[in-house]
Amino acid sequence: MDAHGLLEYVGGRGYRLGPRLLKLAAMSLQEPSLRDIAHPALERLAAATGESAQLYVTSIDGRVCVDAVESSSELRTFVPIGEELPLWAGSAGKVFLAAMLPELAERHIARVRALTAATPTADRLRRQIATARRLGWAASAGERQTGVGSVSAPVRGPLGETIAVVSVSGPTSRIRRADAKRYVPAVIAAATDIERALGYQA
């Protein structure tokens, strides 16, 4: 680490961050984050649908909300930024699982447990993942939290890999599984806007 400039030995006091690591940190602070780049698209999505919009990335054990725009409706859903959620419940999780290698997806499917009466079983989840892979989007209703529905689509990187997922969520009185298709164009448009802002689309 010392030889590569990542750490620097300070005689008698141990190590401190080296010049190379400090330079990398400074560069990362100068670059706009995924959250900064995606936020305008989330604002447009929330305005177009009247529902709350979220952006998720994967974590070791699930997915993390890295940005969110709340609906202006009095009855709305709220996902705190930084909250970690499972991949096996909710539409965003299904989109991530649909993009994974089967053996990796199975590790998450093996963790399925009932959070609500609507949480899918492992077999049902496998079918839903296959459907999400075929359609390019996913929907859920009451799977992670009773009374909450959502629709999600992938944000793809330069090689077609899923780097994030965009969602809209709201009460199931407005976003039921049967209503999902009417939200799909706006969610996919938001994902495309983010890809374009990241420079992945012309």
Determine the CATH topology of the largest domain.
Beta-Lactamase
Order of helices and strands: EEHHEEEHHHEEEH
Rg value = 19 Å
Determine the CATH superfamily of the largest domain: GAF domain
- Give start-end ranges of low-pLDDT stretches: 26-30
**Number of discrete domains:** 2
Structural class of the secondary elements? Answer: alpha+beta
Question: In angstroms, what separates the terminal alpha carbons?
Answer: 40 Å
Q: Tell me the number of helical segments per DSSP (H or I, 4 or more residues long).
A: 6
Q: Please tally the β strands and state the result.
A: 8
Describe this structure in words.
This protein has 202 residues and is α+β, with helices and mostly antiparallel strands. The chain has 2 domains: 1-31, no CATH class; 32-197, Beta-Lactamase, CATH 3.30.450.40. Helices cover 36% and strands 23% of the residues. It contains 6 helices and 8 strands, in the order ββααβββαααβββα. It has helices at residues 19-30, 34-49, 91-99, 102-109, 122-135, 184-197; strands spanning 7-10, 14-17, 52-58, 63-69, 84-85, 138-141, 148-156, 162-171. α2 (34-49) runs antiparallel to α6 and α3 packs across α5 (122-135). The longest helix has 16 residues, at 34-49.
